[in-house]
Protein 1
Amino acid sequence: MTDSTGVSGQVAETVADEAAAARIAVIDLLGLLAFGELSAFERLATDARMAPTLVDKIALARMAAAEFAHFEAVQEHLLRMGVDSEKAMGPFVLPLTLFHNLTAPADWLESLVKVYVGDNIVADFYRETASVLEPDARELVLDVLADTGHAAFAVERVRAAIEAHPIVAGRLALWARRLLGEALTQAQRVAEDREALTGLLAGMGDLQALADMFNRIAQAHAARMDALGLSA
């Protein structure tokens, strides 16, 4: 004869464990996003020094300010969850810092390609993952990832540079491919280190669903390369 009290207790424990794992996954995702936005602010402010004109410098400074505002929005959400933002970001400081150190742009054009191509690869991953989040967290992620003017600014400047000096296209295409490779490598390392994030991805569906997600990210990358006038 089955002990109904024991069974119900096990069910309750399982539900509690699943809820705890889901919370950790959301905290991880938001911690990753928060540090990503903080890094974007820092990087754009630094890249502004390479801007060839005052107009370009102001544009990048404005984008940097928008990224910091996004960081603050994620930080406030974490605080409402009762989570210290520094602790949430902590596990991702090393891999993201390593990625940015390995992909430090050598000049103005490389910095623009990194803003447009590199940052958007990561943003696509966040948008895809947001589909399995609760409505409030999903809305936050999508709001934070809203374009702050990066796209049109980068496309206009890079295409103009290629038109003026076609020889730079090959170098920038190789740079964009390197950005893609490094981004995927670091994403894999983060997933391996953070089981909760891996579980969140698993919750998106079967292997085919995950394959479809990465295919959409690859297609979006190819479309951006085309917009820049570069080969994927």
Note: The radius of gyration is 20 Å.
Protein 2
Amino acid sequence: MRTTTAWQSTGTGASLQRATIERRELRADDLAVRVDFCGVCHSDLHALNGMVGKPVAGLVPGHEFTGTVTAIGPAVTGFAPGDRVAVGTIVDSCGRCPMCAIGQENFCHERAVSTYGGVDRVDGTMTLGGYSREYVLREAFTYRLPAGLDPAAAAPLMCAGVTMWEPMRSAGVGAGTRVAVAGLGGLGHLGVKLAAALGAEVTVLSRTPGKAADARALGAADVVITTDDTQLKAAAGRFDLILDTIAAPHDFSPLIALLGFEGTLSVLGVPLEAPVRIMDLVFGRKKLTSSGVGGRKHTAELLAFAAEHDITADVERVPSAQVDEALARLAKGDVRYRFVLDLSDLD
């Protein structure tokens, strides 16, 4: 087995410890990646606190990272050592089901293998994520990082970015579409950038006016303060699509009221408990939906679009040794807008 260094959990709520972990020897279609930068996702917090069903003890988080290929298996044809690459939230799927056939491996009927806390389809071991200096995975789930994209700022595209991208593509967002983004955090700020680049009229929905200047700088045309009843009333029926990135439990009714005829509320922050009043959807034939990261088709499409429009995340880059501090600040919402770990200090 190969070995590398990682930040690993010893139990729920515990600090991550620097540890030596094992990586598999390369299979024929595998490549090894030196992880250079890994984003810190809110779902990492959920996983470390035992909220999403992943094993906590021994967990190595991290599912949005960029790096450099260091070795390839004999059947790999698309990459060579030295290539810059990006890796997202899934690293394998069955490849046969209807979802895999249309490039939606994230919805694989046999359950996609997540980048960490998943079960390897070949040997049954638990996958260990990108808070580490090396990762080994199949070529098919590795993406070439476009030239010109900063590797640290591009890392969050692989989770936060594609989480925003898929529902926008599904809704046909483009010129003339009225899109609102609820919550201007790691997900939301990329939602604003991407929707604006697609030609939509973008509004940020925020509880306080403190982020209004940031919202406009990111590409929003307007900001609606959701604690202001006058502003909410004026915005009623205004939007075609609302991208709800709020992770905490909250009432959907005020957001649904902002949708126009056949408008869609896409819940992407994944609040774990969320009651829905169906009658809110009835008037105006409104739709409530969600999405989970992205498959290979849309992930590759997103990277190409981001390169064309020079879109990356706004990040705070920190040495990986500060991971506990980053997670604590993330839990308080104290980041604009995504922490990215620099893994070079694991050498």
Note: The chain has two domains: 2-159+294-346, 161-290.
Protein 3
Amino acid sequence: MALSISLVVLLGIIVVILVRTGYQRIMPGTAVLLFGFFLAGTGIAPMVNSAVSSLTGWIGSF
């Protein structure tokens, strides 16, 4: 749970930096945000969550 919150904070910081520097625009960012939001409600969400958890576990093993 703590890893999920820190991952959300890290991704939020990255998005803010990208928007402020002009590398990411608001409308495409909103589309990606909505895609992720609706993806979380589908049947593939547990697989995505498992993949992210295993990737962070693999990175944490270094």
Note: The helical segments are 2-21, 26-39, 45-60.
Protein 4
Amino acid sequence: MRFIKRFYLALILLIMYAPVALLMVFSFNDSKLPIWKGFTLNWYEQMLNDSSIQQAFLYTIMVALSASVIATIIGTFAAIGINQMSGFKKTFMTNITFIPVLSPDIVIGISLMMLFKVIRIPFGLPSLIIAHTTFCIPYVILSIMPKLKQMNYSLYEAALDLGATPWYAFKKVIFPEIMPGVVAGAFIAFTLSIDDFVVSFFNTGAGVDTLPIKIYSMARKGVNPTINAVSTLMFITIITILIINNIRANTNKNKSLPE
């Protein structure tokens, strides 16, 4: 039975990560064809010297940072507001929060595109930031809600009774308690923003390409190993963010355990 479990796990991991591993290997291949010809860093050199890729990288980081910061701020206060509700209102708002998470990306992308057209927001960097912020907020809320449920609100009420203002009590009592959820939500928002293609595709403007859009446009022109190099760096970046987040979460968990 143990062998079957290990074999099943290995098979699942192989199916999931073999294509990514193959892509990473061929990013060092000295040939445009999917046949190994030798090791080279030529494609990474071309990537670093390509001004359009550099511009796409800059836009990707700008959008991801802006969207994650704004979504984290809005999501934090939204989560606190939802947690303070009770009964039908709380259930309704929680379910509303789940809808963007469960909705297909193409639905979110097209609906935001139509909204921007109706209210006449020009397509470009502002529309991208607003779009990314919109679909990141629910993930921030869902990351913070468990921490709010674990918190003892009597500490907040005690701070108010001792003369603290609501903002000071929030800063010194509530925020430190929910900080792990806030940081986790910010990491998730940043990762989702970097990785997004569908919503970005429908809500970008001329000359404003993120890395996923740039990779798509390069792939349409034919086989280009530079795509493998860009995709490899994106994968490594996302994996690094996830590892840092998991290490931070485990560290906080170990600190909270009684000695």
Note: The domain at 53-253 is CATH 1.10.3720.10 (MetI-like fold).
